[in-house]
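Our consortium's second objective concerns turning raw sequence data into structural hypotheses that experimental partners can test. To show how far this objective has progressed, the report includes one record in full. It was chosen at random from the queue rather than selected for favorable results. The single chain below, 185 residues long, was entered without modification.
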Amino acid sequence: MSIAMNITTSIREFDLLLLGMINRPFNPYINLFFVFVVFSVYAYVFLLFFILYKKKRWPDLVHLFINTFAGIAIVTAIKYLTNVPRPELSPILLRLDPSFPSRHAFISGLSVYFSNKIFKGALKALSIIYLFLIPIGSVYIGVHYPSDVIVGFLIGLVLPKIITQKRSLKIWNGVCYLKKFIKLK
């Protein structure tokens, strides 16, 4: 057996072990709480957009915008290239798209990066706690394996360091420049 196969098998075994530990016992009140937390992450990122807009922090707003859409495209591409099936134990949600990596965890990691730039003190601490609950909740409700959320979260943390604010502004300015040549009817 090749090294890659051994690593893949070890990761899957680790995933199943952790999934079983986190996913049990299955409490209906905790389930409801985590479903709300996991799916509220998109509202949270829109809140970040709104705050940056209201504070007129245009470079940060563009940086968040470019990273959000580039990251969703990257994570979605990885999902369909790897085509990892979801855990088959979620009695709550039936998701048909592939599992790896988690888009919710990506948005969570990305939001941690930007929340650190936006918030201070207790609000920052509460935001970080909330954002760490999203990947945990995804595993708890059984829609992701631990490796899905770990990789998604890490992509969210790292991507804004790769697509920096300076690069985001260049992309934004390039798109705005191209709009001069595109006639919309």
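The partners drew two points from this record. The mean pLDDT is 86. The chain has one domain: 3-178. Both points have been shared with the crystallography group to help prioritize constructs.
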